[in-house]
Amino acid sequence: MLEVAVIEDPAAAEVTLDPVRGKLLAALVEPGSATTLAAQVGLPRQKVNYHLRALERHGLVELVEERRKGNVTERVMRATAASYVISPTALADVAPDPDRAPDQLSARWLLALAARLVRELGGLITGATAARQRLATFAIDSEIRFASAADRAAFAEELGDAVKGLVGKYHDEKAPGGRRHRLVVALHPTPKNKEQ
């Protein structure tokens, strides 16, 4: 089971948005059958089986085993991932484009950058998985508590200068066999319910 899977297919994304199917996916981090899941979600086994078939058609759950119980075959299923992210690719016609209105101080532009990051990484992960290769990535996640807005602005300027210096030092437009990498640096307030 994958830790995180990216959903790029619009039909698969639509299937996951059903609240019952979302509960089934969450429950199927551990293998279960329509019978065992029916009690958890409060639905008849036949209804659960209907939802499981829809999830299975889109590759969101997989068969773990089949058990014979009298005249019935019980299908034990498991989610293909512990969690899912819906890529903006699923909404390609209305996906955000950060190139449309670049503005370093705009929260909406930052959101468009994040959407592009999910879209690009989703495609790269899909390709790497199909090729059975690892994907070289690097990320930093940190929190900073600024004493003032002026400190935040000074930090952003200093960070921008440091990044520009590193890009200038290592970027080689003409490197034979070189491969482009995208660097995204973001700074946003921590949501109030996450602050300590």
UniProtKB/TrEMBL annotation:
InterPro entries xrefs: ArsR-like_HTH, WH-like_DNA-bd_sf, WH_DNA-bd_sf
Coiled-coil region: none
UniProt cross-references to Pfam families, sorted A to Z: HTH_20
Name used for this protein in its record: Transcriptional regulator
Lineage summary: Bacteria, Bacillati, Actinomycetota, Actinomycetes, Pseudonocardiales
